[in-house]
Write a structure and sequence with these properties.
Order of helices and strands: EEEEEEEE
Strand order of the largest sheet: 2-1-5-6
Helix content: under 10%
Largest sheet: 4 strands, antiparallel
Length: about 110
């Protein structure tokens, strides 16, 4: 799975909107920890490893989404979410999310 960052809500359609672009930004591998309630719905997932985006453009990221593939083209997002707080980067800056920093609530 890949984690994508977005400048606004990416939506849930076949072509997610508002993905960050520019600089050296690329979606990063995402591995989730154990579901908080071990059921297919409800509960939440969080990242089980540090995720770093290097060479970001000058941008403010407010949302993210996880896709179900590791290669292009991107298909329907499996989950989209608002970041707990927006992340503003300057050109060339890296941004990292610590283990458990990205929490995705399941419907």
């Amino acid at each position: 799975h890949k984690l994508h960052l977005a400048t606004a809500d990416p939506g849930t359609g076949a072509s997610p909107a508002n993905e960050v672009s520019g600089g050296s930004y690329v979606a990063q591998a995402f591995t989730a920890g154990t579901d908080s309630d071990a059921s297919p719905s409800g509960g939440q997932l969080a990242n089980s490893g540090v995720i770093t985006f290097a060479g970001m453009p000058a941008v403010t990221s407010t949302h993210g989404w996880i896709d179900g593939t590791t290669a292009a083209p991107v298909t329907n997002p499996q989950a989209s979410f608002a970041l707990s707080s927006s992340v503003t980067t300057t050109a060339g800056q890296s941004v990292s999310f610590a283990v458990g920093a990205l929490v995705i609530k399941q419907a």
